[in-house]
């Protein structure tokens, strides 16, 4: 089976190169992002492999189907960038990597909390300049603080566990489908999202991006949060309405924000944008706040996660090549 591997980076080439032994799969690594104009690059391939910011809308899927592409393998967990209805209509199989290393993201989210609370990033640059003043670096203890976890799937549960068991935080959670494991991890559910927002000192988002969760953090929900709250998003950018976030930052309502994702990240993330003008004024404004820490969708990036992503994606592609139903198919509910 020949597979066009879009948006490839060096770490993908290394991890998939190491994992691709005797699979019968030939990977053609392409730097281009999948979008309508780059569909022709998939000519002569049976499958394509994509990541979080590739576009797999109905137009793209139609183009791929016309080229004879049978499957799209997402090398990530989220599938919000795929039109599942169109894929079903066109008979294209969509697979993903449902759980590659929830620890990678949960540990990163915890580190992001520590970074914005204790200001590691500011200390790092200050010390490199020979400035050892501590003014402006005042933090607070996490011990006994109330942390609100929104979405207690694989990553949210682990983040809550680290904070409850490791830091002895009071971890509360909200999920449409509460998990039975939460109690043993020291996580307590509240009945409504509003209750979580009102009680939490720190809020961490861990639910998927769906029609129901898009802009769940907006003017109203930000208004329900405590003054000085810390908001962390390692999930998907569009969970947050950026305009409302900026308003809440400007008014001083938010204490600090940590973002590994941004709703329009595909224009800048996963590329060296240091010699580009940032035309997205909301993004530029976010980067300008002293109390906002942004990383470029990095939470998944560990050796362990990359290995699991490569192994599972290759298995998904083999299943497609062999006409076998992969356990990791994404189907329309
Ligand atoms: P998961 O499917 O295991 O869990 C998601 C949870 O969110 C589920 O328990 C679900 O019931 C809950 N949920 C859905 N809608 C909700 C709502 N309206 N309110 C509250 N809870 C709701 O997912 P996961 O593997 O834990 O991943 C969580 C998120 O992290 C996903 O968005 C994924 O795309 C993202 N992610 C980011 C990175 C990164 O590198 N930054 C890496 C992996 C995953």
UniProtKB/TrEMBL annotation:
Keywords: NAD, Oxidoreductase. One of its GO terms (molecular function) is oxidoreductase activity, acting on the CH-OH group of donors, NAD or NADP as acceptor. Residues 111-299 form the D-isomer specific 2-hydroxyacid dehydrogenase NAD-binding domain. Residues 3-330 form the D-isomer specific 2-hydroxyacid dehydrogenase catalytic domain. InterPro entries: D-isomer_2_OHA_DH_cat_dom, D-isomer_DH_CS, D-isomer_DH_CS1, D-isomer_DH_NAD-bd, D-LDH-like, NAD(P)-bd_dom_sf. CDD domains: LDH_like_2. It comes from the Eukaryota. Gene3D superfamilies: NAD(P)-binding Rossmann-like Domain (3.40.50.720). The keyword NAD applies. Pfam families: 2-Hacid_dh, 2-Hacid_dh_C. Belongs to the D-isomer specific 2-hydroxyacid dehydrogenase family. This is D-lactate dehydrogenase. It comes from Tuber borchii.
